[in-house]
Amino acid sequence: MNGLSYLALLDGGGRSPPLSICGLLLYQNPILPSVTFLVLRTHYSGDILPEMDGSEVTLAGWAHEVRDLGGICFLVLRDREGFAQVTLVAKKVDKDLLERVRRLSRESVLLVRGRVKGEPKAPRGYEIIPSEIDLLNEAESPLPMDPTGKVGADLDTRLDSRFIDLRRPPVLAVFRIESEVLRSFREFFSENGFIEVCTPKVVATATEGGTALFPITYFEREAFLNQSPQLYKQMLMSAGLDRVFEIGPIFRAEEHDTRRHLNEAISIDVEVSFADEEDVMALLERAMAKAYTDVADRCQKDLSALGVDLAAPKTPFKRVTYTEALKIANEGRENEIEWGDDLDTEAERAIGSAIGEHYFMTEWPTTIKPYYTQPYEDRPEISRGFDLMHPTMELASGAQRVHDPALLVEKIRRQGLDPEGFEFYLRAFRFGMPPHAGWGLGLGRVVLTMLGLENIRDAVLFPRDRRRLVP
Ligand code: ATP
Ligand code: MG
């Protein structure tokens, strides 16, 4: 079989004979006869080095560009890992093959078999001299957008044709980096004794009052999409899971139109027993610093595609109290924010540019933090809640939580909510709830701020906002 190595093949011994479909060899899996595996590529474009001169390879990908100079024709094949130049010299190559390449529509899917030839003038120092090119699927033309990025497209056009937009290396780079961020966080949690959990996304009650919920029909009842895993991760502290994390969607029915809000977001949530807010702030800054370091160490190619020079933030992050931050925000501001009011975007920006790096905002007024936030015992008007801030926006909110059931009921009431709706949650506090603390960190905002992107929509594959429900 031309010395090809095969992807996803089972042990050779029991193979049934190959089938040929569209010029491809297929093997039927003898254990699961209905599953067939494509006998495809030997390498990604990025695996090939000029030193492999003379080796036979099979690449699979998209016809990025065909440049026909008459005597010589260049086909640029693109796959996930980059580009490969396929060179067809008119005098040397089979006429029929050359004609087929000349007629190729851009973005058609191809399988190219050929020989590597070291070529200093080619983009990666090599070219492929093809022996066979199979057209696996022809792309229609014209294309809905230009996948080379030479013709600019606005964000809406790009999101409408996201499958093509993602074919551009800098766009894909964002999601490879996001994948590394997720891997890094999971590794951090695993190294620190956390259990990964999955809590329900279809729920009967709001987490924090009924305003920002998406109602859904659940058989004959009304239900909602979960705003956050808050109540469930806290119940798991009563259950004795001690340290949990969840990476999952949260839904907010807010009519935002900002560059940092979506109606569906991915939250990295953590809850830890026998811990206070300082303990979980320390975890958060370590996890963030590790994510930056891991991306810098492992995603150099993607960072270069984006033109980003990444430096890990210094730990420990600065701690700034709400009261200190308010003073900064009010300097030179006409409509002063009063102590006890929430900080608006303008205030966040002013404080962020004064501080200039990641920081924790601490000692928030009790009244503007959710009911489950523990107040300081000696000054109950101030809470053990905190936000992790990037100079441009909030990244996470966290706190030591209330664990005393009587105080929790009182705080639910004070926030104008009915404790009856929270009975399933409150029960967990009456029968042995340890003190605990935790946080929720928005994945999209981490990637957005890490890479200096314009908009959270650039950091989400298929964003959901008030206007966008497809694709
Ligand atoms: P903001 O004040 O910026 O609207 P929030 O305080 O309402 O955020 P939290 O409930 O504290 O958000 O959620 C924790 C984290 O989840 C936020 O810090 C943010 O990173 C992320 N997050 C929350 N809501 C959204 C959203 N609508 N879009 C994107 N990320 C979000
Ligand atoms: Mg918050």
Question: What structural category arises from helix and sheet content?
Answer: alpha+beta
List the strand order in the largest sheet: 9-13-14-19-18-17-16-15
Shape field: elongated
How helix-rich are the residues, as a percent range? 25-40%
- Report, as a whole number of angstroms, the end-to-end distance: 41 Å
Integer count of domains: 3
CATH architecture of the largest domain: 2-Layer Sandwich
- Under the CATH scheme, which class of the largest domain? Alpha Beta
Oligomer: single chain
Characterize the largest beta sheet: strand count, sense, and whether it forms a barrel.
8 strands, mixed
How confident is the prediction overall: mean pLDDT? Answer: 92
Short description:
Its main location: cytoplasm. The protein is of the alpha+beta class and 471 residues long.
What does this structure look like?
By secondary structure, the chain is of the alpha+beta class. The protein folds into three domains: 5-41, no CATH class; 46-137, Nucleic acid-binding proteins (OB fold (Dihydrolipoamide Acetyltransferase, E2P)); 164-459, Bira Bifunctional Protein, Domain 2 (BirA Bifunctional Protein, domain 2, 2-Layer Sandwich), CATH 3.30.930. It has helices at residues 95-102, 155-160, 162-165, 169-191, 230-238, 277-298, 300-306, 322-330, 345-355, 405-414, 423-430, 443-451, and strands spanning 19-21, 24-28, 36-38, 56-68, 72-79, 82-89, 109-118, 126-137, 195-196, 202-203, 215-218, 221-225, 243-251, 264-273, 318-321, 359-362, 385-390, 393-400, 436-442. The longest helix is centred in the middle third of the chain and has 23 residues, at 169-191. The radius of gyration is 28 Å and the shape is elongated. The chain starts with 18 loop residues before the first strand and ends in a 20-residue tail after the last helix. Bound molecules: adenosine-5'-triphosphate and magnesium ion. Adenosine-5'-triphosphate is lined by residues 252, 261-262, 265, 267, 394-397, 440-442, 444-445, 456.
